[in-house]
Amino acid sequence: MAAADIPSAALRHHDLCSRGIRLARKMRSDVTDLLDIYVERQGLDASISVAAVDGVPAAAAERWAEQSGTQRLLDNLAAYRAFRTLLAQMLEEQREQLGDADAELGPALAAVLLQVSAFAYHLEELLELESRGAPAEEGSEPPAPPRLSLFEQKLRGLGVLRELAQWAVRSVRDLRQLAKHGPGTTLEGSGTALGLPESQ
Amino acid sequence: MANPIPSACCVVLAVVVVYAQRHSQQDSHIQYERVGADVTMKCGSMDWDAAVTWTANGTDIDDSHLNGSYLILKNVDLTQSGQYSCYEGSSWHLKYQTNLRVGVPPKEPVLMCRSNNYPKGFYCSWHLPSPTYIPNSFNISVIHGTREMVCEKDIFPKNRCHIRYLQLFSTVKYKVTLTVTNALGKNSTTLTFDEFAIVKPDPPESVVAKPVPNNPRRLEVSWQNPSSWPDPESFPLKFFLRYRPLILDQWQHVELSDGTSHTITDAYAGKEYIIQVAAKDNDIGTWSDWSVAVHATPWTEEPKHLTTEIQIIDPHLSQRSGDNLPQPPPPPPPHSLRTLPVLSLFISSILHTLRTYHASRHRCGGGQSHHPPSRGTCPKKPRR
């Protein structure tokens, strides 16, 4: 990278991190509202406990402070790509269950899905700037949703949204750490990518 | 023939040792009873019809409390705690001794958990809503999913322990159970919470408020992050400032998303203000308690001398030095000048009344007042 590009890369990095933080915070706010709507429309108790759902990326991280910037971005990107698929499935299920009769849940789901897609794209840009490139998405078709009863579908949806809300908070923290340490730096701890293929 | 003196010494020594052992065993005997219980004490191995004397803390107990050699205490209360001893009638040998402790079983304890040093960990503290009057022991367990976590007891205060986070951003709730046990019973309480819900910083520190020179309506306020918050750069705090003049009850509020200072620009001139600040993580948890209050008064101008007004009214009052000739009486001032001091007093009182009126009507967010509305919200603490 030429010397003249370094300051602009740093500025772009800072800009992307700041915008990403704003996106994540807005997403979290909208997911929180969506959770309220979802619980009400699906007739669930807001305090119900949901066990870990297969295929839903858990936001929980051990030794979070020790992660490298690249690892943070890769974890975030993998998560939001998964949420993009999960939310699309939920939207489809919701349309089958409630159809056009539901004027609130469907649009709210669609709006969050859009934000998740935008955020995933944003993370890809950050990875490009890190000179890592975004890994290709695995497989051409998303995995088929598991066969579940209606109630199980509702619980699964609740688990997805709760985990997404958690991820939104984590993403704000991750991006703040990224902004603090600047572009292209590798922090202490495991600083290597998982060996995912580089994008073209 | 064997020397009798060492043998006698050994016998005496043996008796002393046995006596001491018995006495120490009896001293260490503690008996716990509930308030209101009926207590019966036996005099060791003495028969029921043996002649004995009971004492409580060295004072003889009246025979009316005896049933044979048994001591009967009905409906015991806290004042009856103490050392009870039983002596054989004629020899005054100590036959039995116990330390009676009257108390109650524990009520449900009060448990609180909070993270004031996120993301390092959290602490839990507890207390009993009412005393038991006897020793209690506390046991706390912390479960996160399937994992049992260690709560390390603090040296001070004793009723507190802290847990280090092993995971962050988990949706799995924490379950904390506190059990209190004493000789008369046990009780417990359980708290279940999310990682984010218990995050509550300590109040901001070193709050300082100063007047701004030549600005009668400004006050500069500054503060610091609480020292217990470990990483304000990565986990920034936002702040809520409230202020009011001492003469009014209504607070003004300002929410600040960054920075640790703020300039109040709508202070009432010359009025002493009380100011406080609270803190919250930018994204999660709840507001801290209010900081220690500070007081400040905006800058005020020095008052001018009164002689200026008199000179305007009657410029002819001054005389040249050495001039002893009587002066003709000064002509009366024009009508407008004569009424000037009366008019100024009238205007001052009108202004004061207006200020008082507007002060009583002024509300957060503006309204009809000519004072600039404060930014932020009116409730005591904002929502998250």
Walk me through this protein's architecture.
The complex is a heterodimer of chains A (200) and B (384). With 200 residues, chain A is mostly helical. Chain A has a domain at 14-43 and 67-133 and 150-181: Up-down Bundle (Growth Hormone, Chain: A). Helix content of chain A is 62%, strand content 1%. Chain A has 4 helices and 1 strand; from the N terminus they run αβααα. Chain A has helices at residues 5-41, 69-98, 105-129, 150-181, and one strand at 61-62. In chain A, helix 1 runs antiparallel to helix 3, helix 1 (5-41) runs antiparallel to helix 4 and helix 2 packs antiparallel against helix 3 (105-129). Chain A is elongated, with a radius of gyration of 18 Å. Chain A starts with a helix and ends in a 19-residue tail after the last helix. Chain B is an alpha+beta fold and 384 residues long. Among the domains of chain B are: 26-103, Immunoglobulin-like, CATH 2.60.40.10; 110-193, Immunoglobulins (Immunoglobulin-like, Sandwich); 205-296, Immunoglobulins (Immunoglobulin-like, Sandwich), CATH 2.60.40. Helices cover 15% and strands 35% of the residues of chain B. Chain B contains 4 helices and 24 strands. Chain B has a 5-stranded mixed beta sheet with strand order 1-8-7-3-4, with helices on one face. A 4-stranded antiparallel beta sheet of chain B has the order 9-10-14-13, with no helix packed on it. A 4-stranded antiparallel beta sheet of chain B has the order 12-11-16-17, with no helix packed on it. The longest helix of chain B has 24 residues, at 4-27. Chain B is elongated. Residues 317-339 and 359-380 of chain B have low confidence and may be disordered. Chains A and B meet through strand 1 and helix 4 of A and strand 15 of B.
Report the span from N to C terminus of chain B.
97 Å
CATH architecture title of the domain at 205-296 in chain B: Sandwich
Q: Are there runs of chain A of 5+ residues with pLDDT below 50, and where?
A: 186-200
Mean pLDDT of chain A: 83
- What overall geometry of chain B do the principal axes of the alpha carbons give? elongated
Share of β-strand residues of chain A: under 5%
What name goes with the CATH superfamily of the domain at 205-296 in chain B? Immunoglobulins
Using only C-alpha atoms, the radius of gyration of chain B works out to 39 Å
Percent of residues in beta strands of chain B: 35-45%
Global outline of chain A: elongated
- Would you tell me the overall average pLDDT of chain B? 83
Number of helix segments of chain A? 4
CATH top level label of the domain at 14-43 and 67-133 and 150-181 in chain A: Mainly Alpha
Strand/helix succession of chain B: HEEEEEEEEEEEEEEEEEEEEEEEEHHH
Profile the largest sheet of chain A. none
Distance between the termini of chain A: 19 Å
**Structural class label of chain B:** alpha+beta
Which regions of chain B have little confidence, pLDDT < 50, spanning 5+ residues? Answer: 317-339, 359-380
Please give the number of β-strands of chain A.
1
What proportion of the residues of chain A is helical, as a percent range?
A: 55-70%
CATH fold-level label of the domain at 205-296 in chain B = Immunoglobulin-like
